Amino acid sequence: MGYEGMRWFKCDLQVQTPEDARHWDPADPLRLSSPRNVEELQDKARQYLRRCHEEELDVIGVTDHNFCSHRVDRHRFLAHLIEQNKTVAEEMGRQPLWIFPGFEVGIPYHALCLFNPVAKGAHLDQICDILTELGLRLDSRVGKDGYEDLRRDGRHVSLVELLRIVQTEHCGIVIAAHAFQKDGIAKDDMHADDFRTPDLLAAEVSRFPLGTGTREQAVLEATVGKWSRPRPIAYIQSSDAKSTLKTDDGKPGPNALGYRWTWIKMSKPSIESLRQAFLDPKSRIRQKEQDPRIIRHHWIGSLSVRGTAFLADQEVYFSPNLNCIIGGRGSGKSSLFEYLRLLTRREDDPGAEEKVRRVRSTLLPASKVQLRWRGEDIATEVPLEDIFEIQVSSPKARISSRDVADPATVFRNLDLQIFSQGQISKLTEEPEFLLPLIDRLVGERLRVLGRKEGELRDRLRGLLQQRRTLERMVAEQISLEQEVAELDRRWQVRASIQTEQRQHRFAQEASKYLEDLAAQTEGIVSAFRQKAEDLMEGHAVLGSSARSWPESSYFEGLNRGVEQAKRELADRITQALNQYDADFARLTHQSTRWRVVENAIRSAEAEFIAACDRQGLAPQDLEQLLQLDRERKLKSFDLERKTVQVRDARNAVEDLDAALSGLHQIWRDQTRIRQDEVGAILKGIETPTTGAGRPLLEVVVYYCDDFQHFRREWSELVPDGRSRLGRQWEELGQTGFDSFRSQRDVVASPWQVFEVWRNGAGLPAGFADLTEPFRDYLNQVRDRWEEKILTRVRDSVDLILFRTDGSEVGALSQKRLSDGQRNTAVLTLLLAKGNGPILIDQPEDELDSNFLFKHLVPLLRRIKSERQVILVTHNPNLPVNADAELVYALSADAEEGGDVRGVVRAQGGLDQEAVKEAVLDIMEGSERAFRQRREKYHF
Predict the structure, then answer these.
(1) Residue of 159, 149, 158, 155 whose CA lies nearest to 199
(2) Which end of the chain is more exposed for a tag (fewer CB within 10 A), N or C?
(3) Higher pLDDT residue, 233 or 494?
(4) Helix count (H) and strand count (E) of the chain?
(5) pLDDT value, residue 388
(6) 618/606 Cα distance (integer angstroms)
């Protein structure tokens, strides 16, 4: 068993067949020959059916003029359509067509009469007899001028009589054919009285859209006096097919099969389904320009329950639109609802704890509960879907249809809202509940700003860190500047002996060079003399074993030769070293200029010592001055580098104020978007209005106004409670927040109030003596304080209800609204916008009664095509007047042993008899009780 609720069928309810020889296109190859040939009828019936499937029709109404003049069913084209239907559908890979048999008659305008599908061609005799009953015998249906009108006693059969015989006595339905064209009911004003007949439920039009201000629109929407009706008539489009021909581009030609059609929502096509669709056309009829089959939202496809303690095994196939779960007390409807919560991991929602605990107790070791989550487009060949599953052994639902690295993320991102019985009331008692609700309604625009806010906040953290670094570097720069100044001051003492000190330094460098050169020469000579000695000492002597070597005499000669060569090398090295020694002596102390050099060095030394004496400096002080000079140069270098760093950091931090202003602007934009979007939502839904046209519900969003949120953030900074600042911290926070509220339009955030106080203004009266402790404390917790500055205080949201006379009932913040009024306001917002499933258990328990019919029902009718709604309800207004696509009726049945379990009594749309009976019994107390109440109300 699969989905049994209502779905959209592509319907062409006025098609002729080749049976209608006088109207059938002579060029169409399906035209029948005479006399009739059964094989030809079968073949052409199959071709006709194939064309229906090629145009993807689901339902056709066969309306040959005056039915058929053949009594033998084997000679009726319609009989072969019915009999070949299943075979051709299998060939085409589609479901069989639903074929409504009927006829088109003139009274004198044309009317279509359709009857329930029949299983065999032989059953068509009944329809033929109805036409006879209406006054057209089999032999009098076609005259010399064409098809005869319905006449009795020389007068046309009236519409009232046609409706009585077709609709009341034979359970068919009448549709006014091509209403605005030739032979149409609305072509001539003389038929206006007939048009107003309440039992005429539908008319056929030849074009859509109707066009604003056209006569067709005025007549069909009952805005013209003579054409006005208690309710507007339903209108459909049909092909009025007279051929199966296609144009060159492969599309049906004018008045060819499938040229026009209508989408009609039904459970299973039947006359009762058509009747209900015509009674509720806004919910159940769409014209050919609209394709309602494409589902552009996620939805719960099915729920399977196996082996639980209370519910019998069952599987619910939900509609992607409006679903109502009904049942008497103890039938398990709320258990079914709460399984949906567990399967989507919404068990932690506030206010649902007790419901979750109870439903978990119904899971047994063998229990298996599954949910099928469907993607956006059910028309795709491979729909996107997941299967979620819970078992008693698993604390959380799991994804059983695929491997997922992080199931929690999948469940968290499900676009889904679930409200158990009484949960809306509990949530509306919490003021913070409204802001996330508003944010869900606003959607992507707010998410884009949220991403920008996060990126800017990260950048600001970096800039604030750079500002702290800049402040530290500026302090270091000032310290370095002072240190360099002090070193310069001390260095000035040395200025008077700079010339002598410089000459002394150069003389010392020259003396040091000579000392280093002499030491280097001594080292070279010593090292090479040692090498010369090592040459002889390191020569290897041949052992006695060498006498046994091959050609031993060669090796003995070789050894003596190498030894002699080494001795000669050592002699040459010694001679070279002696020569180098002599050369070095000649260039230094034996040089004729050596004494002049020594005297110059000694003179520089003496002049420097004399200069030091004149300044009162000891020679050892000079070394300190040299060290001072080195330190001065290093500090100067550090100062230059720090100056560059400070300049770069200051350039970077110049963006801080602009970035902070940008963050505050994003915060204000978020508030504005919330206010604008929710205002547009309330204007766009069918909400009651005051006499002046103002919505009875108003939502006001206040910028950064959630004091409880601010209070929590402020308390995280509280100082030691033993200090006076700590004891007055909460009062100081309240004062600052009140100051922000009084100047909200010009102050960026509550934190900015405290920044002004901290950076110069000082604390206000009553706290003035705490200004310095306040500043010192914020400097101590600077990192935490700057993080608060970047933290947005949440907006506050208030709901205001008005009376129809425009006076104010009260606001949510004022605690003047009743539970029903408060819940009415919130539920309006919950349903107003969004495309994810919304599930509510018994919403009628939490609402004002007049809101249900006046507001909730129209709202459900509007939104159900845009999102899935699943309601558990006891109120018949919801499934009946909101026109639920699926009603799932449960009953509590006793099993052997006395156990009571919830079983399925009926499921489907209200166009199914079993569903209608279940609604009457469960929600109205039976049909008899409903009739008795109706009589007492005197409807």
Answers:
(1) 159
(2) C
(3) 233
(4) 30, 27
(5) 95
(6) 13
